[in-house]
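Aim 2 progress update. The chain analyzed this quarter is reproduced below.
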Amino acid sequence: MPRPTSRTTKVLLLLTPPTLLTYTTHRFLSTLEAKYPPADPTTTTSLALRTPSNPTTQHCPEIDVYEARAVPVKALLKRYRHLLNTTSSSSSSSSSNHPTNEKEKTETLTQAWILTFLNSRPLLHEASIFGLFLNKTYEPGDTLVSTFSDPTSTTTTSSPEPLKGKTILNGMFTIESFTPSSSTSPPPNPQSQSQPQHHPTPGLLLSWRIPPSPIQLFEKISKWGYPFRLMSGGRHEISISDVYTHAGEEVVDVRFASAHDYEFWGVEGGEAKDQKMVPRWVGRVHRGYARFLVDWVVTRELGE
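Predicted structure tokens:
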């Protein structure tokens, strides 16, 4: 018969790894949450991000925006040049690297942040794993580098609409819209150049979908009393703020935003707050991963 102390030791050995993992994950997420608090989506994102794919049958209860502030323009352009030069000669992309006016500067910086984020190492690995299951090849797929590096392309600054419907990163995302510059934005106030202008800015809007089978599974078990439900899909937006001056140099705020769509079920109540969603811990981990991506890009790939 085993001694009580031996049984206690076995229980401790079994409980210690998951306890340490939970505590470490909590500490890691808490650090990221303190470093990147959520920004106001009404002033930092487009209406298209905040609108469900099907407003008549869906609601969008969670809209999150994570923002790294005061990223040096020089660092962003340096990374942009590096990415473009991996697929084209430096001469072919010289015009996009040296904007001659404010509109061109906005377009260039918007593309720079989009390419930098989409070509970040964690996201490339994620897309490659997705491609391994889908195509049996460990490749990230289209990351828009070839599109933005082609000086004769009509799908970038001159005519963004042809990008709509294009799938990237092995089909993980579909482009809904690409706005290289904001012609509707008011001109910046010369007296407030030391602060970013808080209005929706240019960016790339992406959508993603979850296959019907897992959605239907969760809808079925939720009818039986399961307290959670899966989202149908959602959108991501990659955008920047206006250029402003910080500590004597030109900087921008870079953003990554997400929104989730849920089907609206009348049996769960007439209010959106009564509708079932994914567990809170799942939502926190998902938001933590988004913060991690922003932090990785800004601290490691832009060298801030």
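The CA atoms of residues 115 and 145 lie 7 Å apart. The two ends are 60 Å apart (CA to CA). These observations will guide the mutagenesis experiments scheduled for the next reporting period.
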